[in-house]
Write a structure and sequence with these properties.
Elements lengths: L6 H17 L11 E7 L6 H18 L2 E2 L2 E9 L4 H13 L5 E4 L3 H14 L3 E3 L14 E3 L4 H14 L4 E7 L2 H16 L3 E8 L6 H11 L3 E5 L5 H10 L8 E5 L5 H7 L7 E4 L8 H13 L7 H19 L6 H8 L3 E4 L2 E6 L4 E14 L2 E13 L5
Helix pairs in contact: 1-3, 2-11, 3-4, 5-6, 7-8, 8-9, 11-12
The protein binds P-hydroxybenzoic acid (PHB).
């Protein structure tokens, strides 16, 4: 056999060596030793805006709350997985085995979180899912705690709103993977239960989607509204096609989960986004003192950037880590940290949140919002809310 190991094979072997080493890790952190948090995010590639938002929010949390918690210096190690699941998993193994991180965090897309769940289980390291939003994710490891949201949770209110507001026939367009399928299922169930009709549904590819032909087909069917789920980063392309192909002028409304009117892209969308109705857990326009301070500090630290919902998933994920470390006196094992996170409640920039102790997932307020021009810029302006929405609610 050739003694040169093929690069793929070498990676697999390293992965196995890493897996064996995971079992030999010390479980308990020493009081006073640095608290190492491995933050794995897409910092490059089509989902780089998510990496930018989440890493900026985590740094802001450290800036506002101090770089020491329970006597331990916080060491945030940020790694780029470019949105590739095998890379996320490999980086997680390296962070655990070589850097000996105490917490893994980030996970900018569902496939990245799913690929890494076995690493967290084996290493007994808490895995804070700040972004990925398919409902089943926390069932994949007892070490997962989610600080973001789920698609079933945020989809129901806009379905009910549509049915109550003269929208009878809806076309649905979702991205063809976990969160899109969750959104489609939740929307169809709630809208039909409220007496609505689904005219047709289409699923668009996650990689390099060209929304033009899909949006044209929607126009030809002349529904009352188009319901959209696309992951953060793709909303602007959808909005461009919707506008260019004249759906708005034809009287077709756009509705969706708030991913499509992502605060990160909303200013670039401009006036064509006005009137889009979404339901979601976070708007940068949320009217509370905590959020005003957050938006202000985030903008100051990031050249005026508006924080989006993923940033809040990151910020609250850091809060969970800090509070769990405090609760365990700086000495908690991975399992003790996860236990400390269960049932935790606090006021986030998005509003009140609680970690469901059984599901290890967020219970939170979901808001209905309309894009309006305020001060010459488009914002997701909240106009109704539903408290304590469970992660599995559709
Ligand atoms: C996901 O992959 O779970 C995901 C990513 C971005 C979103 C929502 C869900 O905006």
């Amino acid at each position: 056999m050739n003694e040169r190991i093929h690069p793929t094979r070498r990676r697999v072997l390293q992965g196995l060596a890493g897996a064996a080493a995971l079992n030999a890790l010390p479980l308990r952190a020493q009081a006073g030793e640095p608290l190492k948090i491995g933050l794995i995010l897409p910092m490059t590639g089509p989902f780089a805006s998510t990496g930018k938002q989440v890493s900026a929010a985590c740094r802001l949390y450290v800036q506002r709350n101090g770089d020491t918690v329970a006597g331990r210096k916080v060491d945030l190690i940020v790694k780029d997985d470019a949105g590739v699941p095998d890379t996320t998993k490999r980086i997680a193994q390296e962070l655990v085995v070589q850097d000996k991180v105490h917490v893994l965090a980030g996970f900018g897309l569902t496939p990245l979180a799913l690929a890494t769940a076995p690493v967290a289980t084996e290493a007994k390291v808490p895995m804070i899912v700040m972004v990925a939003a398919t409902a089943i994710i926390p069932t994949r490891s007892p070490f997962i705690v989610r600080s973001g949201f789920t698609l079933p949770q945020v989809t129901g209110p806009v379905a009910d709103w549509a049915a109550k507001n003269k929208i009878r026939r809806v076309y649905t367009m979702v991205t063809d993977y976990g969160p899109g399928l969750d959104a489609e299922k939740a929307f169809h169930a709630r809208f039909k239960a409220a007496g609505g009709e689904i005219v047709e549904s289409v699923r668009t590819p996650l990689a390099n989607p060209d929304f033009g032909p899909f949006v044209q087909k929607v126009k030809d069917k002349a529904p009352d509204a188009l319901f959209v789920f696309v992951p953060s980063g793709q909303g602007l392309a959808v909005m461009k096609q919707f506008e260019e192909r004249g759906l708005r002028q034809a009287g077709i409304r756009m509705i969706g989960t708030g991913d499509v009117t992502d605060d990160d892209l909303l200013e670039s969308m401009g006036p064509p986004a006005v009137g889009v109705i979404t339901s979601f857990h976070y708007s940068a326009a949320h009217d509370s003192p905590e959020n005003k301070a957050y938006v202000d500090a985030f903008g100051k630290a990031n050249g005026g950037l508006r924080p989006n919902f993923h940033s809040v998933g990151g910020y609250d994920g850091m809060h969970l880590i800090y509070e769990a470390v405090k609760k365990t006196g700086g000495k908690g094992s991975g399992e003790e940290l996860v236990n400390a996170m269960k049932g935790m409640s606090w006021t986030s920039p998005r509003g009140p949140v609680t970690i469901d102790p059984t599901a290890r997932d967020v219970v939170q307020t979901v808001y209905l919002r309309e894009v309006k021009m305020v001060g010459g810029k488009p914002w997701n302006v909240e106009f109704d809310k539903f408290d304590n929405v469970k992660p599995q609610e559709g």
